Amino acid sequence: MNRRAFITLLGGAAVAWPLAARAQQREEIRRVGVLMGLEKDDPEGVSQLKALKRAFQELGWVDGRNLQLEISWSGGEPDRIQASARELVTLPCEVIIARSTPATAALMRETRTSPIVFAYVGDPIGSGFVQSFPRPGGNVTGFQVYEFTLAPKWLQLLMEVAPSLRRVGLIHNPDTVPQGFCVPWTSCRLRFRYD
User: Fold this and answer.
1) pTM reported for the whole predicted model
2) Which of 13, 64, 160, 187 is most buried when burial is the number of CB atoms within 10 A of its CB?
3) Concatenated DSSP letters for 93-137?
4) Is residue 37 domain-shared with residue 121, that is, in the same domain?
């Protein structure tokens, strides 16, 4: 090999080497906490977690490659939820997803700085998680799956579908939806007078 070819080869390698080294470096891994508030084998929770992973993948975030999901299944027990919230906050996670009112409340007791995104919360304003929907304030935001002020309309539709209906029951768990939920239903009972 002549001297000129050798220098050209060496120069090309010197330029290509930093590019190759950078290409081999791993992407930065982002840590996201998920506090489920359900048992690990809960079919609805498992399905929702699969959907979350799929949505992350569609955005280019793959668990194990550039994303590390820290998933905590606390089974709905208040002590386990609080311990899981404490653990997720201390990892630390860049953002924590809370699936339920108790999970969101537990996370808020642990941090006022880590970003929290909630889902399946009955009354985020009444629970004190956000100031309002357009301006949540603080470190918490999310979305509400049901708008419970539509409850009178639900009962009206139910009466149209089943006009012979004479009794309607409501099951309410104040641990998962502590405030705001019963008010619309109370007005419906007075309005429709089910006996």
Assistant:
1) 0.71
2) 187
3) -SEEEEESHHHHHHHHHH-SSS-EEEES-S-TTTTTS-S-SS---
4) yes
Question: The domain spanning residue 34 has which CATH number?
Answer: 3.40.50.2300
Do 38 and 87 fall into the same domain? Answer: yes
Residue 10 counted as domain residue? no
Mean pLDDT for the chain overall: 80
Question: Residue 58 corresponds to which tokens in the numbers above?
Answer: 């569609």
Alpha-carbon torsion angle 69, 74, 75, 77, nearest 10: -160
SS3 188: helix
* 5-47: pLDDT as tens digits: 544 444 554 444 455 445 555 678 999 999 998 899 999 999 9
Length of the chain: 195
What whole-number distance in Å separates Cα of residue 63 and Cα of residue 66?
A: 7
What are 93-128's pLDDT values in tens digits?
999 999 988 999 999 999 999 999 999 887 888 889
Distance CA 61, CA 29 (A): 9
Same domain assignment for residues 166 and 87: no
